[in-house]
Amino acid sequence: MRVFVTGSQGRIGRYVQAQLEEAGHTVVGFDQVSGDEIRDPAAVRAGAQGCDAIIHMAAMLADPKDDPNAVMHVNLQGTWHVLTAAETLNIRRVVTFSSVNAMGIFIGESLPDYLPIDEDHPCRPGRPYALSKYLGEEMCRLFTRRTGITTICLRPPWVCFPDSYQRIRQRWAENPESEWTPLWEYGAFCDVRDVARAAVLGLTCPDPGHARLLLCADDIITSGPASRELAAKIHPTVPWRGGEVYEQQPFRALVDNSRAKQVLGWQPRYSWREQA
User: Fold this and answer.
1) How does pLDDT run across 76-118, given as a tens digit for each residue?
2) Which domain holds residue 82?
3) Is 58 helix (H, G, I), strand (E, B) or coil?
4) CATH number at residue 39
5) Which residues, other chains included, contact 62 with Cβ-Cβ below 8 Å and sequence gap of 6+?
6) Which residues in 39-48 are b (16+ Cβ under 10 Å) and which e?
7) Against a cut of 0.85, is the pTM above it?
8) Tens of pLDDT, residues 204-247
9) 131 Cβ partners below 8 Å, 6+ apart?
10) Residue 109 domain-assigned?
């Protein structure tokens, strides 16, 4: 399969490209470091010419110093240009990177309505980056409804790189409260190698139409306390829906990844306790 990959030279993009090539696919990269411009619809269309599928990662990230107008411009227009290129070129599958931030309950935006978190949780983003990711998902949903082209929106939490595990342990040793201060992200993480594999699987999994999928490791990042203990300590007012499984698996993730497993045939391979 010939795959058009936007953001191919980014930190995650390099892992996606490597796994695509390992799986026997041909990668057509598109990245600003090579002079490519996601805001140029003609350039996106030309880059995707002759491709069978698209993985779209090019975006401005959640840096509060970024101009909100630029965030909206890059993230929404970029996604629109990718989708219209797919339609024009008859590319039938687009895997795009959204974020857990589309839900509006990460990076301290608001408390969740319940724990654990799943895809059915209401979305209420307010910050520019979070709003751009949510609106990008909605764009994909309506695009699929109109065209029948498959769109799979992946929602990773914090993406952990192989050199991150020990660095986090060291930070916690120096300042234990940094585990949840100023923010606690529900202990959610996903190893970059698992994130990349989910994107690759999205190219060939059975057609889900449009799907929004939470990606997460099976366990939480923790200095020792279990999932239920941390939830009760940090978010005591949030209703708990975890059930008895958290007694049997005390470090089980507080972000439900079961839909990604079902749709993609994906299984995260990297856990916090095995890597840290």
Assistant:
1) 999 999 999 999 999 999 999 999 999 999 999 999 999 999 9
2) 2-161+188-218+254-268
3) coil
4) 3.40.50.720
5) 99, 101, 107, 127, 129, 130
6) eebebbbebb
7) yes
8) 999 999 999 999 999 999 999 999 999 999 999 999 999 999 99
9) 72, 125
10) yes
